[in-house]
Amino acid sequence: MTEMSELDPEDRKIVTLARSARARNGVPEGAAVRDETGRTYVAGTVALDSLRLSALRTAVAMAVASGATSLEAAAVVTAAKSLPAEDRAAVSDLGTPETPIFVASPDGVLRWPDLI
């Protein structure tokens, strides 16, 4: 298991932003992604009657809508034991096989860095 202190400062930043989004909005998940220019996009779970998106898919959608063409890293804070295939696919659409997805529990403990 990788400790948060072992992460690059920019990777720690997106995990912290994801955790903050979850707490601030009172949603099940928070996520953040970093694009090829270093810009970050932060989102929480969207749960409307007509639209349901995970936090990670929402963050990727925000990046795409803002003109991002690739992702350097992603982070999600969730109580879930695994990421849905759709979340991995969203990161994969803009990332590379080396793009990490950092997954942390709600208390901020990094559970695993994963590669798409």
Characteristic key phrases:
116 residues, alpha+beta, Cytidine Deaminase, domain 2, five-stranded mixed sheet, two-stranded antiparallel ribbon, 3 helices, 7 strands, 28% strand, globular
Model description:
Helix content is 33%, strand content 28%. It has a single domain, classed as 3-Layer(aba) Sandwich (Cytidine Deaminase, domain 2). The longest helix has 17 residues. The chain is globular and about 40 Å long. The mean pLDDT is 92. The strands form two sheets. It has a five-stranded mixed beta sheet with strand order 2-1-5-6-7. Strands 3-4 form a two-stranded antiparallel sheet. Strand 3 and strand 4 form a beta hairpin. The protein contains three helices and seven strands; from the N terminus they run αββββαβαββ. With 116 residues, the chain is an alpha+beta fold.
What's the structural blueprint in terms of helices and strands?
Blueprint: H1 9-25, E1 30-35, E2 40-44, E3 46-47, E4 52-53, H2 55-65, E5 71-77, H3 85-94, E6 100-104, E7 110-115
Parallel strand pairs: 5-6
Antiparallel strand pairs: 1-2, 1-5, 3-4, 6-7
Helix pairs in contact: 2-3
